[in-house]
Amino acid sequence: MINKTKSHTFEILAEDSKSQARRGVLQTAHGSLETPCFFPVGTAGTVKTLSPDELVAAGVQGILANSYHLYLRPGLDVLRSAGGLHKFMNWNRPILTDSGGYQVFSLANLKRVEDEGVLFQSHIDGSYHFLTPAKVIEIQRAIGSDLMMPLDLCAPYPTTYAQAKEWHEQTLLWAAEARLEQEQQPFLYGHPQELWGIVQGSTFEDLRRESASELVAMNFPGYAIGGLAVGEPRAIFLEIVELCAELLPEEMPRYLMGVGTPADLLDAVALGMDFFDCVLPTRVGRGGSAFTWKGRLSVKAAHEKEAFIPIDLDCPCYTCRNFTRAYLRHLFVAEELLALRLVSLHNLHFYQELMARMRGRIADGTFSVWKSEIQQILREVESGEQVANNATE
Amino acid sequence: MINKTKSHTFEILAEDSKSQARRGVLQTAHGSLETPCFFPVGTAGTVKTLSPDELVAAGVQGILANSYHLYLRPGLDVLRSAGGLHKFMNWNRPILTDSGGYQVFSLANLKRVEDEGVLFQSHIDGSYHFLTPAKVIEIQRAIGSDLMMPLDLCAPYPTTYAQAKEWHEQTLLWAAEARLEQEQQPFLYGHPQELWGIVQGSTFEDLRRESASELVAMNFPGYAIGGLAVGEPRAIFLEIVELCAELLPEEMPRYLMGVGTPADLLDAVALGMDFFDCVLPTRVGRGGSAFTWKGRLSVKAAHEKEAFIPIDLDCPCYTCRNFTRAYLRHLFVAEELLALRLVSLHNLHFYQELMARMRGRIADGTFSVWKSEIQQILREVESGEQVANNATE
């Protein structure tokens, strides 16, 4: 059976009247994803420190896995023998994979960009590898992800117009190659895998327009927006998100890669984004920083030493139901690994709760009013923050 | 209310006819402990990498916590404000504490042994501390452990007769002081705490005899055997365990500190020991070594790369129900913390299952036959092994 079935069903269930926010649901071979939807990052086939059961308990609908990392370790042979990543890591919900391109630029030692692909050296052992659009599809087929991304070139910020143009054009060519490769291949594990297009073009409006319109012409079943959250000012970030949302078809899912803080998610949803992934909740959780509805707090702070209250009194997560800030602080001070688990778990729960509340507010028509209220509180502690997207834990 | 109630109830339920093994139950303020009983080590108020829920799921009846570590971090003020360690770490089952003496010798920088106590420097910040028998009771009262140990001096192996004699005599004096201190203090958290005696005397039979008979004259509600598993040959280890069992009252619980491998536990139970603690299952678990009924295996081994079977097909633990050796190996290779959790969890489950099987075999009269069968298999991979007891993770 050739993988001509490109589109899972995306259905928009409700739209906010005062913003571009929408609530929807995407059907995949591993169940449905209610949008707006946030994927935690499971770089190497595990969301750092947490078990699949804990992810489910935190309300996680799907995870993002990194093609670059899984290609290097455990490698495609093991993934194929295992029957794909779902079975390998015992995760039965949807998996989204990136193209690996970002890691080649951010983590590996990039040697050369050619028309055919990118040559890089592994960050693990220095071995040489050449990623082509077809190879990236092969990797994601071995992973068996529900949502795949084509090889792309993500320009840093700032970059020249010439560089941004060259890479966006190469990204378009590779998107077409990836699409062709994917259509020629049978399902590896008996379930469909969907390939989305990635809009690039840095902060240049005309390039973004060209990128989006060319991809839309290829009729992808979903669109990712890449090349943002790489250090650009927040106002520019929001402008480009808004522009991309206008350029992409209303009825198709939109995925803003590598974003972000709670305030970023609220703004991006208001601009019409549906999917997100970010290392933020787990990474800062491992550093002792916990998200709450009153802003972020550090459980490592000296004044939490005898704080015999949970991170958030109203939070129903395992961490908040069972442990105090004083205990969490002690675990961090004593360098106990349980600390990393417990705050990561709380933060993922917070993120899922944030997305669930957004869905509820969109559905009942109160999104915009609620958003400005909650964002005012959350922004107080996050003003000026910009999280670099490296999509790798 | 003064803590004159020294004894929780220990009841012997069954005795093996072909060995000294016995099955019993000890009542504590935090529930009963079925013996033979193994306590995992929760050094700093957490069994490394694992949550209390996971310990319960693994069948753990009680844990050992380290007085030395908890005294330094989080310190007695925090423990008292928290209402004791049970509440602090959210563990509602029994807690056993050591005296801290062992860590002063093995981990801290010991400065001086005086008649009044030991002067040492913290391994964390170099600060000076003086532990006395009364101070060690104060620490354990702040912790609120169900079973407490008096300050003791554990001779290294090998040691001179003169040294062993001097330290064993000091240990006896301190046991009496600790006992007096404990009897004069009210319950701190409203529940009784029991103080046991520790038999010392290194590998010298007459010293062990003297130590045991003096302690028994003090009529402790339970007896620990210290100073073993510190590097002595296995034959000597077993001889001293056997001797101590003979010297201690039949009707009182016996605790062999810092032991050991599955083969050690089987032998020691056959010699009449009831309680054990050891870092082994969690420490080697974090190193990728898993216990099974066919011996130990390393999930990091290259030949496990495509082993899509659990550590043990018959094991009902969370790890074996959900993950393959190939996945565990990948997690270790990728240095993912989930690896440490999953193998620790399996190993604790194995240890609890081992103790449960011993209890069952003692109850149905088949302990000795079963022991020699199972030990033959387990010994194959553990011959010559001697685990140093440092009782600290």
How many angstroms does the end-to-end distance of chain A come to? 35 Å
Largest interface: A-B, 38 and 39 residues
User: How would the global form of chain A be characterised?
Assistant: globular
Chain oligomer state? homodimer
The main pleated sheet of chain A reads as: 5 strands, parallel
In percent, how helical is the residue content of chain A?
Answer: 40-55%
Spatially, the strands of the biggest sheet of chain A line up as: 4-15-14-13-12
Number of helices of chain A: 15
Topology:
The structure is a homodimer of 393-residue chains.
Chain A: E1 10-15, E2 22-28, E3 31-35, E4 37-40, H1 52-57, E5 63-65, H2 67-72, H3 76-82, H4 85-89, E6 95-97, H5 101-106, E7 109-113, E8 118-121, E9 128-131, H6 133-143, E10 147-148, H7 161-184, E11 194-195, E12 197-199, H8 205-218, E13 223-225, H9 234-247, E14 254-256, H10 262-270, E15 275-278, H11 280-286, E16 289-292, E17 295-298, H12 318-322, H13 325-333, H14 337-363, H15 367-380
Parallel strand pairs in A: 4-15, 5-6, 10-11, 12-13, 13-14, 14-15
Antiparallel strand pairs in A: 1-2, 2-3, 7-8, 8-9, 16-17
Helix pairs in contact in A: 6-7, 7-8, 8-9, 10-15, 11-14, 13-14, 14-15
Descriptive account of the structure:
- The structure is a homodimer of 393-residue chains.
- The first copy, chain A, has 393 residues and is an alpha/beta fold.
- Chain A contains 15 helices and 17 strands.
- In chain A, the strands form 6 sheets. Chain A has a 5-stranded parallel β-sheet.
- In chain A, helix 10 links the parallel strand 14 (254-256) and strand 15 (275-278).
- In chain A, helix 8 runs parallel beside helix 9.
- Mean pLDDT of chain A is 94; it is low at 1-5 and 381-385.
- The A-B interface holds A 44-46, 48-53, 69, 73-74, 77-78, 81-82, 88-90, 305-306, 308, 318, 322-324, 326-327, 330-331, 333-334, 336-338, 340-342 and B 44-46, 48-53, 69, 73-74, 77-78, 81-82, 88-90, 305-306, 308, 318, 322-324, 326-327, 329-331, 333-334, 336-338, 340-342.
